Amino acid sequence: MAGVSRTPLIAGNWKMNLDHLQAIAFVQKLAWTLKDSGHRYQDTEVAIFPPFTDLRSVQTLISADKYEIAFGGQDLSAHDSGAYTGEVSGAFLAALECGYVLIGHSERRQYHGETDEVVAAKVQAALRHGLMPVICVGETAEDREQHGPSAVPVGQLRTALQGVPADADIVVAYEPVWAIGSGQAATPEQAQQVAAALRQLLGEVLSAEAAERTRVLYGGSVKASNIAGFLREPDVDGALVGGASLDLKEFSSIVRFQKHVGV
Q: What is the predicted pLDDT for the residue at 181?
């Protein structure tokens, strides 16, 4: 069951928003807001994914003020170094003390042509540098109609897990493309159905133990008003929050889902 052995993770993907000065102000306010509300990070982990240009500022602030907020990159290169203009190495993210990195977000797949094979190579790059990959999978409305609800996300994850050791620390984020930014979230039942299928695949490809401890997040129009329903499902262990993660009140309310809805 979620919460028994898996600490819920609320992850905020800022996408291409907030410069480094805005990031400093936001992280300070988020930390203060959560402290004032008595948030316990051991009960619900909080992670943010700022743009690359913000990461050094965020790292310096979090380190200096000893905030318990985790952070990571929105992407990384499959390569460790070399003639790859505009790419960011996992080594650079590790040097900035990032704990996580998003891989295969639907926007990367859609706008940058990332294939399942590219995603798999990036997962390997993350693991090489001690970063925990947040492997994003999901289907379009057309995929869902043609193949059913879980076939495409399960296929994407199967490829992404190629060569991943059974003891690797990973996170899986299910984000139905049809729900992202649409205001139309999946139902908790839809999220649970796919999360359960993804967890079953983790058991088949990695191990039963890996399936039990790996957190599966839901992403797609997550709000304070619907987070509780998702987190009540046994195989949904948190959320990958997009637009709502830029709204301090809304995001901190999502983080405090246990407090304000009694889950």
A: 75
